[in-house]
Design brief:
Layout lengths: L1 E8 L8 E9 L3 E9 L12 H4 L1 H6 L8 E4 L2 E4 L2 H19 L4 E5 L7 H11 L7 E3 L6 H11 L7 E2 L6 E5 L3 H4 L9 H10 L3 E5 L5 H5 L2 E3 L6 H14 L10 E2 L1 H7 L5 H8 L3 H13 L4 E4 L1 H4 L4 H14 L9 E2 L7 H4 L5 E5 L6 E3 L8 H6 L8 E5 L3 H4 L3 H9 L3 E5 L12 E3 L9 E2 L9 E4 L1 E2 L12 H16 L9 H11 L12 H5 L5 E5 L4 H4 L7 E2 L3 H5 L1 H5 L9 E4 L15 H4 L7 E3 L1 H6 L7 E5 L4 E8 L7 E3 L14 H5 L26 E7 L1
Parallel strand pairs: 6-7, 6-17, 9-10, 9-13, 10-11, 12-24, 17-18, 18-19, 25-29, 26-28
Antiparallel strand pairs: 1-2, 2-3, 4-5, 4-19, 8-14, 15-16, 20-22, 21-23, 25-30, 26-29, 27-28, 27-30
Helix pairs in contact: 3-19, 4-19, 5-14, 9-11, 9-12, 9-14, 11-12
Protein name: Dehydrogenase
Pfam families: Molybdop_Fe4S4, Molybdopterin, Molydop_binding
InterPro entries: Asp_de-COase-like_dom_sf (IPR009010), MoPterin_dinucl-bd_dom (IPR006657), Mopterin_OxRdtase (IPR006656), Mopterin_OxRdtase_4Fe-4S_dom (IPR006963), Prok_molybdopt-oxidoreductase (IPR050123)
């Protein structure tokens, strides 16, 4: 037996922790993974590891994972050769576009796409040839308000200020649970240790959440907030900062602060309190504490993105950091300077250049809100979507009103999925094209280095050999592009491998040929534990991409949305509002087929305050029916004092009991899908992002 140690980043969440993976070559059995541990020499994660990383071996060895292209023939799945599959896709898509127009083909890209650099570099090599405006992704059920806010204020959707967690004295967290998520749009391995370090140096951590989350449990202060009420709380904070003279001058060039002050003058803490269910004096005291801290940072994440005023929330987060002098400041919110800088190398993007056909939802960066996907397939008429391409996504479980989407998928003329599994969505496909596994791929993090709490970079080579007959994701897209170009006569420009693109990006970047670092792919090969490029530092002014290179504090699109907020009313006293929740052993819908991640007690129950149970004649552990405007599910309810009264919590990504799903372990403990309850009509009107939090529901005995 020959043992080998490998070093690589875990790609399963945004923390990108460094791993040491031991493989053993066994005669007659090939190379086997024998150990996965945290890499203590990793320049960024310093040996930290979470349970997900250990399950990489389960993903690799999963007998349910597809290893060759599959074609659906009637109710059966049959293998098909790669070239035949490419030709079939090209033939069907070309015919549909010829008959119905280029927008008759839609695309959905799922969350794992951004964890795979080959997909990031090459998916558009094929998808761009389609010239369809019907492109959708998980962005609009997650973080679209982040990007739109940065686009409007700073000129680029990826110019996202990140909490300087290692130097701040006060961290205010809204709608985020980094102890479960490992940090999100804040790439931060070992976040618990970093949060406790704030406290150890005399600082303070405050969490605002409708549930006493794992992060709230270690915070200095936790405030319950009504789901969907975060904007009201943030307005009350900002209004207090202005009214009590708690602002500081910023070194940044800023336009529009006087307009902001005038626009929110009526949104006092007292006026906002009934909307967010936080007492006015607590709002005011929180503003005073934040302003009094030597350094402070306000951080809002998915819980404030996926609600009816998600963009307003993120605009207010930016303004609170700005007016207290904490934007672009050590200990406040800072922008990364990554080795491969997508801000420097791409345009600022665009917003609302076109709208969805049925509901008129705005595009952002060439994508439409996924809440509009089903209606674009179901609504007849010119421009109706007749074919769908899904890439590493499971929108039936991950997007609003999954049952409606199932109906839409069942009526398509053609569907192809680039995916590893026959899951709740891909079971409707005519073809499934599976790539190599993650450990059979090189890895470079093009996305999450953009959001890291330090400037870091690393490139990891594949640990396991590419199986004979298998293709990497990027090779699949090159094959599809070539076949489509031949079929349609379109011109196809030559391309290069993803690693070569990364080498170019490194050499042309801030730390490349013109710098003392001289970073290149060869450099990173020599540093398997990664390269630390230093702490974040103020850099926003020269990186601004607005037309006048000034921060736009009062974008007209956002100010126009204030009228919608001003009409907000507090919900009825007896109404229940549903929120989601995360768990460190899960990530959306794609980690429930691995024993190491689902073992132990079930984690997909409905959480509910004991008083809410009692008032409905329900008991702990009972099966209940949960109903919303769009659907009904049955689930076990668990009494929890961690829940705010009037709020229930159900994690999304479950619901694996659908017929035709070929995921053995997931089907064995399927849970119920929260997105059978979420409403495609409930969204942030400004951005089009789905409002998955604050869904009105009723709960009764099953």
């Amino acid at each position: 037996m020959t043992k080998t140690l490998h070093h690589r980043a875990c790609h399963l969440c945004e923390a990108i922790c460094g791993l040491t993976i031991e493989t053993t070559e066994v005669e007659g059995s090939g190379v086997q993974i024998t150990s996965i541990k945290g890499d203590p020499q990793d320049s960024f994660s310093r040996g930290h590891i979470c349970p997900k990383a250990v399950a990489l071996q389960d993903i690799q060895n999963d007998p349910d994972r597809l290893r060759q292209p599959m074609q659906r023939v009637g109710s059966e799945w049959q293998p098909i050769e790669w070239e035949d599959a490419f030709s079939l896709v090209a033939e069907r898509l070309a015919a549909i576009q010829e008959r119905h127009g280029q927008n008759a083909v839609a695309v959905y890209q799922g969350n794992p796409s951004v964890h795979n650099y080959g997909l990031m570099t090459h998916s558009n090599y094929f998808l761009g040839l389609l010239k369809t405006r019907n492109r959708f992704s998980a962005t609009s059920v997650d973080q679209l308000p982040h990007h739109l806010t940065s686009h409007l204020m700073y000129g680029h959707g990826l110019l996202l200020p990140i909490p300087d967690i290692d130097h701040t004295d006060f961290m205010l967290i809204l709608g985020g649970n980094p102890l479960a998520s490992n940090g999100s749009i804040m790439t931060v391995p070992d976040v618990e240790k970093r949060l406790k370090a704030i406290q150890a140096r005399g600082g303070k951590v405050v969490v605002v959440d409708p549930r006493r989350s794992e992060t709230a449990a270690i915070a200095d202060q936790h405030l319950f907030v009504r789901p969907g009420g975060d904007a009201a709380l943030l307005f009350g904070l900002l209004n207090t900062l202005f009214a009590e003279g708690l602002t500081r001058d910023s070194h940044l060039p800023v336009d529009g602060l006087d307009d902001v002050r005038e626009a929110i003058a009526g949104f006092t803490a007292e006026a906002m309190s009934p909307l967010c269910a936080v007492p006015a004096e607590q709002i005011r005291q929180l503003a005073r504490d934040f302003a009094a801290a030597p350094t402070a940072v306000c951080y809002g994440r998915m819980g404030v993105s996926t609600q009816a005023f998600g963009t307003l929330c993120h605009w207010l987060v930016q303004l609170i950091n700005l007016v207290t002098g904490n934007l672009d400041r050590v200990g406040g919110a800072l922008c990364t300077e990554p080795a491969v800088d997508l801000v420097a190398s791409t345009s600022g993007g665009h917003f609302n250049l076109w709208q969805s056909r049925v509901s008129g939802r705005p595009e952002y960066g060439g994508e439409l809100p996924v809440s509009a996907l089903a209606e674009e397939m179901l609504t007849e008429g010119e421009g109706q979507v007749r074919a769908l391409i899904t890439v590493a996504g499971n929108p039936v479980l991950s997007t609003p009103n999954g049952r409606q989407l199932e109906q839409a998928l069942d009526g398509l003329e053609f569907m192809v999925s680039v995916d590893l599994y026959i899951n709740e969505t891909t079971r409707y496909a005519d073809l499934i094209l599976p790539s190599t596994s993650a450990l059979e791929n090189d890895h470079y993090d093009t996305t999450f280095n953009m959001f890291a709490v330090r400037n870091v970079t690393r490139f990891n080579r594949a640990i396991l050999a590419k199986p004979q007959g298998a293709l990497h994701d990027w090779e699949i897209f090159v094959g599809l592009a070539k076949a489509f170009a031949v079929k349609t006569g379109k011109e196809l420009k030559p391309t290069i491998a993803p690693a070569q693109m990364i080498d170019r990006g490194l050499r042309m970047g801030l730390y490349g040929d013109a710098s003392e670092h001289k970073l290149s792919l060869a450099t990173l090969f020599d540093h398997p534990h990664g390269v630390d490029l230093g702490a974040l530092k103020p850099n926003l002014t020269p990186r601004l991409k607005t037309a006048n290179q000034r921060v736009q504090a009062a974008p007209v699109e956002i100010l126009a949305d204030l009228a919608r907020f001003a009409a907000l009313q507090a919900p009825a006293a007896d109404e229940l509002l549903m929120i989601g929740r995360r768990h460190v052993r899960s990530n959306n819908s794609w980690m429930h087929n691995y024993h190491r991640l689902v073992k132990g007690k079930p984690r997909h129950q409905l959480l509910m305050h004991p008083d809410d149970l009692a008032s409905r004649g329900l008991s702990d552990g009972q099966r209940v029916r949960v109903s919303s405007r769009v659907g009904v599910i049955e689930v076990e309810v668990v009494a929890s004092l961690d829940m705010m009264k009037g709020v229930v919590s159900l994690p999304h990504g479950w619901g694996h009991a659908r017929p035709g799903v070929q995921m053995t372990i997931a089907s064995g403990q399927p849970g119920s899908s929260a997105n059978d309850l979420t409403d495609e009509c409930q969204l942030d009107e400004l951005s089009g992002n789905a409002a998955l939090n604050g869904v009105p529901v009723t709960v009764a005995a099953a």
